[in-house]
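Human:
Care to share another protein and its fold?

Assistant:
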Amino acid sequence: MFKPYQTAGGQQAYYFRRIFHIVSLTFLPWFYFIFLIQKSSFLMSNSIYFFIALVICATPLEVIRLYFGHLIFGMREYEKHTISGAYWGGLSFTLVFLLAPSPPLGLGIIWCVAWVDPLLGVLREKKVSLCLTLCAGLFLSFSIWEGISFYYELSRLEIAILAVTAVLCELPTLKWVDDCALMMLIPLAITLLWKIA
């Protein structure tokens, strides 16, 4: 029985959403931060306009979707009358691309969303205890940041704060803002405050 997921399109849509989430949020930031920034400033600047244009185009479409209470394949039932996770994710994703102080910080922020968010979501669906869920999330989050620090210089304090923040941002169950957005926007805000300080 597919009751827990409450996804428009059923079980196939649920798995499609999970796989699309992981694949897109793993490879798009890698392509942008590692390939475009290092290979071509022209492509980098124009790709930013592309993502901004997508958000601008998606905004009226999201408003119309909300007005009619329509669910697109893969959306969750509660998104019928609230801003979708896909819209929140696209907006936050674009802001990280635009504002991240450095490629490794932007990459780490998005990769934590790509992998930690679905892991914690699945563990919650399986009714795993909060303690084990937190431990698994923290282990994966630290592993991602440690892996990035192997190639880029990051302080132990940066790794610790950003790894823990990613997990804590996923825990609240809020209907008015998607947890993926919190996992990107709050760490992004922290990195920007570091830059100002």
